[in-house]
Amino acid sequence: MNLNIAITGLHATDNPAPGIGVIRCLLHDENWNGKIIGLGYDVYDTGIYDKGLLDHTYLIPYPNQGVDQLLERIQYIHHHIPIDVIIPTLDSELAIFQRIKQNLKDMGISMFIPSKEIVNKRSKQNLVSFCEEAKISTPKTVVIHEQGQFQKAIDEIGFPLFVKGVFYDAYKCKNISDTSHYFDEFRKKWGFPVLLQKPVNGKEYNVCCVGGVDGELLGSVSIRKVGLTDKGKAWSAITIRNEKLTEFSKKILKKLKWNGPCELEIMVEERTGELFLLEINPRFPAWIYLCTGADQNLPKLVVDLALGKKVSALPPAKSGITFVRHATDMVCPLDYIENLTIKGELHY
Amino acid sequence: MELQFKSELTISESGFLFDHSTGLTYTLNSTGQFIFRKIQDKQNAMHILNFVMQEFDVSEETAHKDLDDFVRQLKEFDLVSR
């Protein structure tokens, strides 16, 4: 089947977006027969220059420019290159793609993403109440909605603690001075809520999952990060086979009825072996290409689900498969930049 | 007394050990590899002690020390239970 698949999140610097990994997974499939359309936000998004991976590149408006702008742009692209499936890969754009899902469907473009209600349940400020309801362990967390709750939250959690922003980042603090500093930083950057969380002493594992229509776990790859950047992003990792992690992931997806890709961040407490859910990222992780080595092509699975195909759960992922990320330079002629700047599109 | 590994472990010819459930890796010297394989073969501690004495031509005291040291490290890394 000849498919045109559009993928976002192509800026791959030291904190890479997942789009390039997703594309590499799709191209890895031996039956792949289609075109890849890269959807970039900026002329200097790094991945849009990779002609070895992309057939076409189009710039699209940032999510904060609104639904109409995005829809109009996708209609334009679809008119020139009919799109079968879009795979959004960024947290920040998920809400807008949810809003235009039906419009896209009417145009003949499919996606396989969970609803706004489901995604909201796993947001940082709602995760604790979801975990309580679903009887899933998560570190003790206090969500601060206003300045007056700050001291009480510290008294409740105690030191050391993590200060977490509502969207990104977390800092471990051992005293009031550091806590105040990062609390203010997050408050100024993204406003309330800000979270304080008790650390769990143990090892962290990440699981990339795909949930089916009713939240059934159709595929998962578990990893232990081996090398981290100074931002805490994986630079190398190894796949593992751990039944406890798989069962835990299965329970989480089922309770959420999660239909789509996600990445679970899980701590295994050293003393007790208990599993704690830290976060759920509502998209593929940047290390997604590793899944092909573990014989689980999860992006291909999402394409099949988006197209409404009947799919079965994949066999367990292979353990002991490693990835090491390395940076490379791409050299391109001036007309690439010219086309993207003037027309907002580039065809290889 | 029989030693048992807690999780699935694989060892290569070169003594590179991989724990499938945690992704952690270890390197074993020749004595470690020998003892590890005997544990995999479900030999008890007494038999392993005798095997070490024969294989490496060492006294019971030395074999005991080597075996104890190795098992202590396996426990430290949470790889084995008794």
Task: Kindly provide the name of the CATH class of the largest domain in chain A.
Answer: Alpha Beta
Here the CATH topology of the largest domain in chain A equals: Rossmann fold
Range of strand content of chain B: 15-25%
Secondary structure tally: strands of chain A: 15
Give the second-level CATH assignment, the architecture of chain B: Orthogonal Bundle
Shape of chain A: globular
Share of helix among residues of chain A? Answer: 25-40%
Structural class assignment of chain B: alpha+beta
In terms of quaternary structure, the protein is heterodimer
Query: What is the number of domains of chain A?
Result: 3
Give the integer mean of the pLDDT values of chain A: 95
Number of helix segments of chain B?
A: 3
Strand content bin of chain A: 25-35%
Relative helix content of chain B: 40-55%
Order of helices and strands of chain A: EHEEHEHHHHEHEEHEEEEHEEHHEHE
